Amino acid sequence: MPAYKKNNSRRKFIRNTALAASGFFIVPRYVLGKGYTAPSDKLNIAGIGVGGKAEVNLPYAFNKGSDNIVALCDVDDRQAVNGRKRWPKAPYYKDFRQMLEKENKNIDAVIITTPDHMHFVQAMTAMQLGKHVYCEKPLTHDIYEARMLTRAAAKYKVVTQMGNQGSSGDDTRLIETWVQDGLIGDVHTVHVWTNRPTWPQGIPTPKGKFAIPKEVDWELWLGTAPYRGFNPTYLPAIWRGWVDFGTGSLGDMGCHFIDVPYRALKLGYPVAVETSVGSVYTGFFQEAIYPDSYPPSAKTHIRFPARENMPAVEMVWYDGGIRPKRPVELLPDEEMGEYDGGIIFEGTKGKIMAGLFGRNPTLLPTRKMKETELPKSKFGFVEGGTEGHQQQWVKACKQGYGAYTSSSFDKSGPLTETVLMGNLAVHSYNHFETDAKGNRKFNGRKQLLWDGENMRITNFEPANQFVRRKYRGNWNGSSE
Questions:
Q1: Quick one: pLDDT at residue 475?
Q2: Residue 356, C-beta contacts closer than 8 angstroms, at least 6 positions apart
Q3: Which phi and psi angles does 259 have, rounded to 5°?
Q4: What is the pTM of this model?
Q5: How many CB atoms lie within 10 A of CB 323?
Q6: 426, 275 contact by CB (below 8 A)
Q7: DSSP E strand stretches across 8-156
């Protein structure tokens, strides 16, 4: 039995943490307290997740000692080796709930760098304890969670940031200015593509029994996800391709690429979405559906209504190696986007092309870059650009709630909802019912109409099961 269950007060704390899944919950007074002010101008930061992307996030926040890393947590000791060597005085835990309980008075802020399915409960728990939160992208695993974190950030008045560092880049601000100044007229279509997945997708659920590595707490790694026996194909970053844990290509790169047009076009909730996905065949005319894995590729259309002085716009997302048609303005040998993917804005007076994070924004045809007087950014640049994303959040935490960050949850929450709308369409596309003859009927393969305010698909009820997932065990508030 885990040590934290031996103490009744800890058990109550953990059980209450699980209630975050159903909305806001009440944190016990003995845990919440009155908050804590650091004795110096250094921010005391805890890391939930120590390996992988945390090996970038934590050092940038630490900033060569300008701030403190005061506690570390990871369910896999192998992932934590480098972090524990770098900050040997920081107490180390496997359960984030135990860390937040024991180190509560020592922590000002939390950086979350874990698989997608755990973002919500970790961020919500930290915010309810009054901690500022930096959470990797995508903000959450499902749409409902994103809406709840957006509301929670305002309710608990904490400084937040999602880990889409391109939102702090200079080029994002340039494109935002160019589009809103009407440089290419009214934008009606945006194409966005990525080379992801760069991991296996569209594959069957792994089988076989494997010994759990002694360094891994598999129960804690699964967390809110349905129970599955340990399999090495779920680790490390390959978890992104499994529906229970990750959010596929869209979750991985959508918050980077889509963020640029989302800001520039002042997009809000979409009104419709439809998709088509790459098929997988196991034999002649034997189509396979692997609902536990995201498809190998997808093309998704997301439609937004007119807003302010901007017309309705359609965003088209491509992944798995699919790319849009080359613009006629682009010469045959000129590069389209970048290796990672790209963005093309189509307006009534021209086109803009860019790469990841909006890098290298270019008018098409490219000769226009020399012929056109380009407006300077009307938005302030972030110190350090994309590499200053973590420190921007750190400095804002010191200023307090209301200080600007590039991807605060009021911005990144709605962005995440839009990104996850694509996944909802993918899930619906592969959702089937079986008729009396045993034939599959894929009724979700159509345009889905979205009521953003109420988070509902209005013309295909089965799709609404993908708006909010169910948590297992005590993560949904039940006691063991």
A1: 85
A2: 166, 253, 256, 257, 338, 340, 341, 342
A3: -55, -35
A4: 0.92
A5: 16
A6: yes
A7: 44-48, 68-73, 92-93, 109-112, 132-135
